[in-house]
Fold this sequence. Notes:
There is one protein chain. By secondary structure, this protein is of the alpha+beta class. Helix content is 29%, strand content 27%. It has ten helices and 16 strands. It has helices at 87-98, 171-174, 181-190, 209-221, 247-252, 255-263, 267-277, 309-325, 334-345, 350-365; strands spanning 63-67, 73-78, 103-118, 121-135, 151-154, 161-165, 168-169, 196-205, 228-232, 235-236, 239-242, 279-289, 291-295, 301-305, 329-331, 371-374. The strands form three sheets. Strands 1, 2, 5, 6, 7, 8, 11 and 12 form an eight-stranded mixed sheet that branches. Strands 3, 4, 9, 10, 15 and 16 form a six-stranded mixed sheet that branches.
Amino acid sequence: MSKSSKSGFRDVECGNPISERYTDEPVIPLLNDYDTRDAPPPFNNYDTQDDPPPFTTYIPVVKKLKTGFGMSDTLTVSHDPHLNNDGEALYRWLKEESLIPPKPQVHIRGTHQTCRQKDGKTETSTTTDFDLRLSLGQYFVEGNVFGHSPHLRTVDQDKKTSRGGRWKTVATDLGVAKLSVLSWAHKYCEDESTLKEFIMKKSCEGWDLTLLKNQLEAMIRSMNYLGSIDISFPVLETRVEVFPSNRISQMRKNVYWRWFFYLTFLWIFAWPFLWFFTKRYHITETVWHYAVWQESPSGTRERVFVQQEMEWLMTWGSAIKRAARARRQGFVTTHDIDEVRRAGSVRPTIDDALGFMMLSRSGIIGWGGSEHLNF
Protein backbone atom coordinates (compact mmCIF):
# COMPACT_ATOMS: atom_id res chain seq x y z
CA MET A 1 0.00 0.00 0.00
CA SER A 2 1.45 3.31 -1.02
CA LYS A 3 1.31 6.40 1.03
CA SER A 4 -0.28 9.67 -0.08
CA SER A 5 2.02 12.08 -1.93
CA LYS A 6 2.72 15.63 -0.98
CA SER A 7 0.36 16.87 -3.70
CA GLY A 8 -2.59 15.28 -1.93
CA PHE A 9 -3.34 12.59 -4.51
CA ARG A 10 -4.34 9.14 -3.35
CA ASP A 11 -3.66 5.88 -5.12
CA VAL A 12 -6.63 4.11 -6.70
CA GLU A 13 -5.44 0.84 -5.30
CA CYS A 14 -6.14 2.10 -1.79
CA GLY A 15 -9.82 2.34 -2.66
CA ASN A 16 -9.82 6.11 -2.07
CA PRO A 17 -11.14 8.34 -4.86
CA ILE A 18 -8.80 10.75 -6.62
CA SER A 19 -10.10 14.33 -6.19
CA GLU A 20 -7.69 16.06 -8.56
CA ARG A 21 -5.30 15.06 -11.29
CA TYR A 22 -2.63 17.19 -12.82
CA THR A 23 -2.99 18.12 -16.47
CA ASP A 24 -1.26 20.54 -18.82
CA GLU A 25 -4.58 21.66 -20.50
CA PRO A 26 -6.08 24.98 -19.36
CA VAL A 27 -9.16 24.83 -17.23
CA ILE A 28 -12.21 26.37 -19.06
CA PRO A 29 -15.09 27.26 -16.75
CA LEU A 30 -18.57 26.25 -17.80
CA LEU A 31 -21.32 28.74 -18.55
CA ASN A 32 -23.17 27.79 -15.42
CA ASP A 33 -20.16 28.84 -13.35
CA TYR A 34 -20.82 32.54 -14.17
CA ASP A 35 -23.03 34.67 -12.00
CA THR A 36 -25.42 36.28 -14.53
CA ARG A 37 -26.55 38.80 -11.96
CA ASP A 38 -23.33 40.74 -12.45
CA ALA A 39 -23.36 40.47 -16.26
CA PRO A 40 -23.75 43.70 -18.29
CA PRO A 41 -27.03 44.23 -20.18
CA PRO A 42 -27.13 42.82 -23.73
CA PHE A 43 -26.01 45.15 -26.52
CA ASN A 44 -28.87 46.87 -28.29
CA ASN A 45 -28.28 49.16 -31.22
CA TYR A 46 -31.90 50.40 -31.20
CA ASP A 47 -33.01 52.61 -28.37
CA THR A 48 -36.79 52.44 -28.25
CA GLN A 49 -37.00 55.51 -26.05
CA ASP A 50 -35.90 57.72 -28.97
CA ASP A 51 -38.35 56.26 -31.48
CA PRO A 52 -40.22 58.87 -33.54
CA PRO A 53 -43.98 58.78 -33.22
CA PRO A 54 -45.72 56.62 -35.83
CA PHE A 55 -46.61 58.53 -39.01
CA THR A 56 -50.28 59.31 -39.42
CA THR A 57 -51.77 60.82 -42.55
CA TYR A 58 -53.52 64.11 -41.92
CA ILE A 59 -57.23 63.83 -42.65
CA PRO A 60 -58.64 67.24 -43.56
CA VAL A 61 -62.21 68.40 -43.21
CA VAL A 62 -63.89 67.73 -46.56
CA LYS A 63 -67.41 68.18 -47.86
CA LYS A 64 -69.19 66.94 -50.97
CA LEU A 65 -71.18 69.49 -52.95
CA LYS A 66 -73.79 68.76 -55.60
CA THR A 67 -73.51 70.71 -58.82
CA GLY A 68 -75.97 71.46 -61.59
CA PHE A 69 -79.72 71.69 -61.44
CA GLY A 70 -79.98 67.94 -61.95
CA MET A 71 -77.78 67.33 -58.89
CA SER A 72 -75.88 64.72 -60.90
CA ASP A 73 -72.26 65.68 -60.23
CA THR A 74 -70.32 66.06 -56.99
CA LEU A 75 -67.39 68.29 -56.04
CA THR A 76 -64.86 67.50 -53.31
CA VAL A 77 -64.20 70.77 -51.46
CA SER A 78 -62.05 71.57 -48.42
CA HIS A 79 -61.54 74.77 -46.45
CA ASP A 80 -59.15 73.11 -44.02
CA PRO A 81 -56.62 75.66 -42.64
CA HIS A 82 -53.80 73.08 -42.54
CA LEU A 83 -54.06 72.48 -46.28
CA ASN A 84 -53.63 76.21 -46.81
CA ASN A 85 -50.52 76.46 -44.60
CA ASP A 86 -48.62 73.20 -45.16
CA GLY A 87 -47.63 72.40 -48.74
CA GLU A 88 -46.56 68.86 -47.81
CA ALA A 89 -49.97 68.11 -46.29
CA LEU A 90 -51.73 69.55 -49.35
CA TYR A 91 -49.59 67.43 -51.67
CA ARG A 92 -50.23 64.21 -49.71
CA TRP A 93 -53.97 64.85 -49.69
CA LEU A 94 -53.99 65.47 -53.45
CA LYS A 95 -52.10 62.19 -53.90
CA GLU A 96 -54.78 60.34 -51.93
CA GLU A 97 -57.60 62.01 -53.85
CA SER A 98 -55.91 61.18 -57.17
CA LEU A 99 -56.32 57.47 -56.36
CA ILE A 100 -60.12 57.84 -56.37
CA PRO A 101 -61.26 57.35 -59.99
CA PRO A 102 -63.75 59.61 -61.72
CA LYS A 103 -67.08 58.22 -62.89
CA PRO A 104 -67.34 58.23 -66.69
CA GLN A 105 -70.62 57.35 -68.35
CA VAL A 106 -72.26 56.86 -71.72
CA HIS A 107 -75.47 58.85 -72.05
CA ILE A 108 -77.81 57.84 -74.91
CA ARG A 109 -81.02 59.80 -75.32
CA GLY A 110 -83.71 59.46 -77.96
CA THR A 111 -86.43 62.10 -78.40
CA HIS A 112 -89.05 63.18 -80.91
CA GLN A 113 -91.26 66.22 -81.40
CA THR A 114 -94.97 66.12 -80.68
CA CYS A 115 -97.15 68.85 -82.25
CA ARG A 116 -100.60 69.46 -80.87
CA GLN A 117 -103.10 71.64 -82.72
CA LYS A 118 -106.06 72.95 -80.80
CA ASP A 119 -108.31 75.86 -81.65
CA GLY A 120 -105.97 76.95 -84.41
CA LYS A 121 -102.96 77.01 -82.11
CA THR A 122 -99.96 74.71 -82.40
CA GLU A 123 -98.04 73.57 -79.38
CA THR A 124 -94.77 71.71 -79.77
CA SER A 125 -93.22 69.58 -77.03
CA THR A 126 -90.34 67.14 -76.81
CA THR A 127 -91.10 63.54 -75.89
CA THR A 128 -88.34 61.32 -74.54
CA ASP A 129 -88.42 57.84 -76.03
CA PHE A 130 -85.49 56.45 -74.04
CA ASP A 131 -82.80 57.86 -71.76
CA LEU A 132 -80.02 55.36 -71.07
CA ARG A 133 -76.84 55.59 -69.04
CA LEU A 134 -73.97 53.12 -68.80
CA SER A 135 -70.96 53.24 -66.49
CA LEU A 136 -67.44 53.00 -67.92
CA GLY A 137 -65.46 53.18 -64.68
CA GLN A 138 -64.68 49.45 -64.61
CA TYR A 139 -62.64 49.64 -67.83
CA PHE A 140 -59.75 51.73 -66.55
CA VAL A 141 -56.28 50.28 -66.98
CA GLU A 142 -55.33 51.76 -63.62
CA GLY A 143 -56.43 49.37 -60.92
CA ASN A 144 -57.14 46.51 -63.33
CA VAL A 145 -53.77 45.89 -65.00
CA PHE A 146 -50.71 45.14 -62.86
CA GLY A 147 -48.10 47.87 -62.84
CA HIS A 148 -50.44 50.72 -63.79
CA SER A 149 -51.58 53.34 -61.31
CA PRO A 150 -52.91 56.90 -61.70
CA HIS A 151 -50.24 59.58 -61.87
CA LEU A 152 -50.68 63.02 -60.32
CA ARG A 153 -48.94 65.56 -62.55
CA THR A 154 -48.86 69.18 -63.59
CA VAL A 155 -50.41 70.28 -66.86
CA ASP A 156 -48.30 70.65 -69.99
CA GLN A 157 -46.27 73.78 -70.49
CA ASP A 158 -48.10 74.76 -73.67
CA LYS A 159 -51.57 74.41 -72.11
CA LYS A 160 -53.32 77.65 -71.30
CA THR A 161 -54.48 77.56 -67.70
CA SER A 162 -54.39 79.54 -64.45
CA ARG A 163 -50.96 79.38 -62.83
CA GLY A 164 -51.43 81.33 -59.62
CA GLY A 165 -52.78 84.44 -61.29
CA ARG A 166 -56.11 85.84 -62.33
CA TRP A 167 -55.72 85.08 -66.05
CA LYS A 168 -54.98 81.95 -68.02
CA THR A 169 -51.44 81.85 -69.35
CA VAL A 170 -49.02 79.50 -71.09
CA ALA A 171 -45.95 78.55 -69.10
CA THR A 172 -43.54 79.28 -71.94
CA ASP A 173 -44.83 82.86 -72.03
CA LEU A 174 -43.85 83.26 -68.39
CA GLY A 175 -40.32 82.03 -69.01
CA VAL A 176 -40.39 79.63 -66.04
CA ALA A 177 -39.45 75.96 -65.86
CA LYS A 178 -42.06 73.29 -65.19
CA LEU A 179 -42.57 72.87 -61.46
CA SER A 180 -43.62 69.71 -59.68
CA VAL A 181 -46.96 69.26 -57.93
CA LEU A 182 -45.25 69.59 -54.55
CA SER A 183 -43.65 72.88 -55.61
CA TRP A 184 -47.01 74.27 -56.71
CA ALA A 185 -48.53 73.14 -53.40
CA HIS A 186 -45.88 75.06 -51.48
CA LYS A 187 -46.38 78.06 -53.75
CA TYR A 188 -50.10 78.05 -53.06
CA CYS A 189 -49.56 77.86 -49.28
CA GLU A 190 -47.06 80.72 -49.42
CA ASP A 191 -49.61 82.90 -51.19
CA GLU A 192 -51.22 85.13 -48.55
CA SER A 193 -54.13 86.23 -50.73
CA THR A 194 -57.56 86.18 -49.12
CA LEU A 195 -59.19 84.91 -52.30
CA LYS A 196 -57.39 81.95 -53.84
CA GLU A 197 -58.16 78.40 -54.96
CA PHE A 198 -56.24 75.23 -55.78
CA ILE A 199 -58.03 72.81 -58.10
CA MET A 200 -57.07 69.33 -59.29
CA LYS A 201 -58.97 67.88 -62.26
CA LYS A 202 -59.44 64.26 -63.27
CA SER A 203 -59.90 63.21 -66.88
CA CYS A 204 -60.27 60.04 -68.95
CA GLU A 205 -58.61 59.12 -72.23
CA GLY A 206 -57.57 56.13 -74.31
CA TRP A 207 -60.74 55.32 -76.26
CA ASP A 208 -61.84 56.72 -79.60
CA LEU A 209 -65.11 58.24 -78.40
CA THR A 210 -65.98 59.55 -81.86
CA LEU A 211 -65.85 56.01 -83.25
CA LEU A 212 -67.91 54.71 -80.34
CA LYS A 213 -70.48 57.45 -80.77
CA ASN A 214 -70.92 56.75 -84.49
CA GLN A 215 -71.25 53.00 -83.89
CA LEU A 216 -73.84 53.50 -81.15
CA GLU A 217 -75.92 55.79 -83.34
CA ALA A 218 -75.74 53.35 -86.26
CA MET A 219 -76.80 50.50 -83.97
CA ILE A 220 -79.88 52.40 -82.77
CA ARG A 221 -80.75 53.47 -86.32
CA SER A 222 -80.65 49.80 -87.31
CA MET A 223 -83.82 49.38 -85.22
CA ASN A 224 -85.45 51.87 -87.63
CA TYR A 225 -85.62 54.53 -84.97
CA LEU A 226 -86.70 57.83 -86.56
CA GLY A 227 -86.26 60.22 -83.66
CA SER A 228 -83.37 62.42 -82.63
CA ILE A 229 -80.40 60.68 -80.99
CA ASP A 230 -78.09 62.47 -78.59
CA ILE A 231 -74.99 60.58 -77.37
CA SER A 232 -72.52 62.07 -74.91
CA PHE A 233 -69.79 60.88 -72.56
CA PRO A 234 -70.05 62.83 -69.29
CA VAL A 235 -67.46 62.33 -66.56
CA LEU A 236 -68.59 62.92 -62.98
CA GLU A 237 -66.65 63.67 -59.78
CA THR A 238 -63.68 65.18 -61.60
CA ARG A 239 -62.81 68.19 -59.41
CA VAL A 240 -61.00 68.47 -56.09
CA GLU A 241 -60.97 72.04 -54.77
CA VAL A 242 -59.14 73.74 -51.89
CA PHE A 243 -60.10 77.19 -50.58
CA PRO A 244 -58.97 79.28 -47.60
CA SER A 245 -60.89 79.03 -44.35
CA ASN A 246 -61.97 82.69 -44.30
CA ARG A 247 -65.63 83.66 -44.28
CA ILE A 248 -65.78 84.90 -47.88
CA SER A 249 -64.38 81.65 -49.27
CA GLN A 250 -66.79 79.59 -47.20
CA MET A 251 -69.79 81.68 -48.24
CA ARG A 252 -69.07 81.22 -51.93
CA LYS A 253 -69.38 77.42 -51.53
CA ASN A 254 -72.41 77.48 -49.25
CA VAL A 255 -75.57 76.52 -51.11
CA TYR A 256 -77.83 78.70 -48.96
CA TRP A 257 -75.73 81.83 -49.44
CA ARG A 258 -75.54 81.14 -53.16
CA TRP A 259 -79.30 80.95 -53.46
CA PHE A 260 -79.59 84.14 -51.40
CA PHE A 261 -77.34 85.95 -53.85
CA TYR A 262 -79.28 84.50 -56.82
CA LEU A 263 -82.69 85.53 -55.50
CA THR A 264 -81.60 89.01 -54.41
CA PHE A 265 -79.57 89.56 -57.61
CA LEU A 266 -76.52 90.43 -55.53
CA TRP A 267 -74.57 87.98 -57.71
CA ILE A 268 -74.44 90.79 -60.28
CA PHE A 269 -71.95 92.55 -58.00
CA ALA A 270 -70.41 89.58 -56.17
CA TRP A 271 -69.53 87.45 -59.20
CA PRO A 272 -67.32 90.08 -60.95
CA PHE A 273 -65.59 90.84 -57.64
CA LEU A 274 -64.75 87.18 -57.04
CA TRP A 275 -63.76 86.60 -60.65
CA PHE A 276 -61.32 89.51 -60.83
CA PHE A 277 -59.71 89.15 -57.38
CA THR A 278 -59.35 85.35 -56.98
CA LYS A 279 -55.93 83.85 -57.61
CA ARG A 280 -56.35 80.47 -59.30
CA TYR A 281 -54.03 77.48 -59.21
CA HIS A 282 -55.53 75.14 -61.85
CA ILE A 283 -52.25 73.41 -62.46
CA THR A 284 -52.60 69.75 -61.42
CA GLU A 285 -54.43 66.86 -63.04
CA THR A 286 -54.81 63.09 -62.90
CA VAL A 287 -55.45 61.11 -66.09
CA TRP A 288 -57.18 57.72 -66.07
CA HIS A 289 -56.79 55.56 -69.18
CA TYR A 290 -59.02 53.09 -70.97
CA ALA A 291 -55.94 52.05 -72.95
CA VAL A 292 -52.23 52.91 -72.94
CA TRP A 293 -49.34 52.23 -75.28
CA GLN A 294 -46.25 50.62 -73.81
CA GLU A 295 -43.13 48.89 -75.04
CA SER A 296 -43.24 45.09 -75.02
CA PRO A 297 -40.28 42.86 -74.05
CA SER A 298 -39.63 42.30 -77.76
CA GLY A 299 -39.16 46.04 -78.30
CA THR A 300 -42.44 46.70 -80.12
CA ARG A 301 -45.22 48.99 -78.96
CA GLU A 302 -48.41 47.32 -77.81
CA ARG A 303 -51.76 48.60 -76.62
CA VAL A 304 -52.71 47.63 -73.07
CA PHE A 305 -56.41 47.70 -72.25
CA VAL A 306 -59.15 46.02 -70.28
CA GLN A 307 -61.56 46.06 -73.22
CA GLN A 308 -61.45 47.76 -76.62
CA GLU A 309 -64.19 49.95 -78.04
CA MET A 310 -65.68 47.39 -80.42
CA GLU A 311 -65.47 44.63 -77.80
CA TRP A 312 -67.41 46.84 -75.41
CA LEU A 313 -70.01 47.48 -78.10
CA MET A 314 -70.40 43.75 -78.78
CA THR A 315 -70.81 43.09 -75.05
CA TRP A 316 -73.42 45.79 -74.41
CA GLY A 317 -75.05 46.23 -77.83
CA SER A 318 -77.95 43.79 -77.39
CA ALA A 319 -78.72 45.09 -73.89
CA ILE A 320 -78.75 48.70 -75.15
CA LYS A 321 -81.12 47.89 -78.01
CA ARG A 322 -83.40 45.93 -75.69
CA ALA A 323 -83.55 48.83 -73.21
CA ALA A 324 -84.21 51.35 -76.01
CA ARG A 325 -87.09 49.29 -77.37
CA ALA A 326 -88.53 49.10 -73.86
CA ARG A 327 -88.32 52.92 -73.68
CA ARG A 328 -86.15 52.65 -70.59
CA GLN A 329 -85.08 55.71 -68.62
CA GLY A 330 -82.22 54.79 -66.32
CA PHE A 331 -79.04 52.74 -66.12
CA VAL A 332 -78.27 49.70 -68.24
CA THR A 333 -76.39 47.19 -66.09
CA THR A 334 -75.00 43.66 -66.30
CA HIS A 335 -78.44 42.47 -65.23
CA ASP A 336 -79.71 43.51 -68.68
CA ILE A 337 -76.95 41.45 -70.33
CA ASP A 338 -78.04 38.42 -68.29
CA GLU A 339 -81.67 39.02 -69.29
CA VAL A 340 -80.69 39.05 -72.97
CA ARG A 341 -78.80 35.78 -72.58
CA ARG A 342 -81.65 34.12 -70.72
CA ALA A 343 -84.15 35.31 -73.31
CA GLY A 344 -82.08 33.68 -76.04
CA SER A 345 -82.00 30.33 -74.23
CA VAL A 346 -85.75 30.10 -73.42
CA ARG A 347 -88.34 28.79 -75.89
CA PRO A 348 -90.66 31.61 -77.04
CA THR A 349 -94.28 31.68 -75.88
CA ILE A 350 -97.41 33.08 -77.56
CA ASP A 351 -96.99 36.40 -75.71
CA ASP A 352 -93.39 36.59 -76.92
CA ALA A 353 -94.57 35.95 -80.46
CA LEU A 354 -97.15 38.75 -80.26
CA GLY A 355 -94.54 41.08 -78.84
CA PHE A 356 -92.16 40.14 -81.62
CA MET A 357 -94.84 40.96 -84.19
CA MET A 358 -95.33 44.40 -82.69
CA LEU A 359 -91.57 45.01 -82.68
CA SER A 360 -91.36 43.80 -86.24
CA ARG A 361 -94.11 46.22 -87.27
CA SER A 362 -92.29 49.12 -85.59
CA GLY A 363 -89.10 47.96 -87.22
CA ILE A 364 -90.72 48.09 -90.64
CA ILE A 365 -92.60 51.38 -90.46
CA GLY A 366 -90.26 52.97 -87.95
CA TRP A 367 -90.81 54.37 -84.48
CA GLY A 368 -89.89 57.50 -82.59
CA GLY A 369 -90.88 59.87 -85.40
CA SER A 370 -92.55 63.23 -84.99
CA GLU A 371 -96.22 63.17 -84.05
CA HIS A 372 -98.97 65.57 -85.11
CA LEU A 373 -102.10 65.52 -82.99
CA ASN A 374 -105.32 67.41 -83.68
CA PHE A 375 -107.85 68.26 -80.98
